[in-house]
Structures are given as C-alpha cells and as structure tokens.
C-alpha cells in the first residue's frame, strides 16, 4: 500500500500527482503531513512541493479540460472534507486516461461528486459575499471576520477588490487563521500570530474600532428594523436564505445598541 503526504498546499497536491505518475506507484491514500495514519503494511512517502512539477500537471489538465472544469478541481481542494485528495486524484487519473472529454461523464463517481462539490462551494461563496459585514478600526481599516464551512476565502478576492476598491480592508477567516488584505493597490493573503477577534462570536475588541463604529451599527440596525415588515414575516424562508450559523457575523442580528 502506498501513502503519500504533502504540505497541504494545492501545489503540493499537484506535486504528489506528478510523483505518482513519474514512479508509477498509484496511491491508496493521500494526506496532509501530520494527519496520516498508515497501517503496518503501508509505506509512507512525503512529497516536497515542487512548483515546476505542479505547473506541468496543471498545464496538462488545462489542455484537456475547460476552464470551469479546472476551477471545479480547485474548488474540490478548497472543500477540505476527508478524502478530497484521493477524489481529485481519481478525477485526474480519469482525465489523463481518456481520449475524450470526461467533464460530463456523470456515470463516473468522481465526476459526479466533484460537480456536486462545486455547487456547494458556489453557495458558500455567494453567502459570504452577501453576509460579510465590515467594521471600521481606528486606523481606517475595514475589518470583517468569517468562519465558512469551506475554505472559500481565495474565491472572494475578485468580488471584494472590485466592490471596495476605494478602501483598505481585511477579511479574516477565524477558523483557518488567515486573511485576505487589500491595501488600496494589491490583495494579499496574511497570517496573524493572534487573531484580534473572539473565536466563538466573531466580535472584534472594542478598543480597536473607530469611535463612530457603534453609531454606524445602530443606524444599520435601525434601518433593518424599519424595512422589516412583521406582517410578511416568513421564518422558514428567512432561515433558508440566512442560516443561523452566519448570524454571529451579522450586525443586524446582534443585540440592539442603545
């Protein structure tokens, strides 16, 4: 049995796939380093990330797949659920073994599964774009926290860079402990040694916020209350479009400020 480990990056996973084909040693399991639990008859092989090898695999896939299909593979990596590495490998294996395009070959489990994952990731990305609420800090940075079910932060870059191009902002994923920062020119990923946010509630410390931030929050809550029509209240529909797990990051769902 062959177990491969990698550093957890997408390029690292592509490097594993390159090694598999180079040595003709097909994997029984692929895991992020530190998570592997090989059996007594299994051999574990750690693959170092190689940008050149990863690029060769990715370029090969781009020649055989559409742009949307390649994006779906990346979304499967962001999905993060157990076994996603082997799912991606099975898909890649099918791509390279087929003479025809396999993107709509839903008779294959891996094709059907990745298509379903892509829809899940799209819904989570769409919800993050709708539910993110910024707070202004004393130094003028607009700060927001998220804790999505899937690692969709990389997919939010284009949307927020275009929508908030005139202000510096930081979107921080408290679950994965990294953020997306825009400095009015460039967007970059950053890691903080200690997140300045409450891990459970998503609240920012009051001492880093602008003194006007409570007023803005109160105005937003007042507006939300006034546009809400009690006679047309539909709790079931409301929960379907705005699940409870997102409420802790929504200004309109917090305790009313006096």
TrEMBL record:
Domain DUF4130, chain residue ranges per copy: 84-252
A Pfam family: DUF4130
Protein name per its UniProtKB record: TIGR03915 family putative DNA repair protein
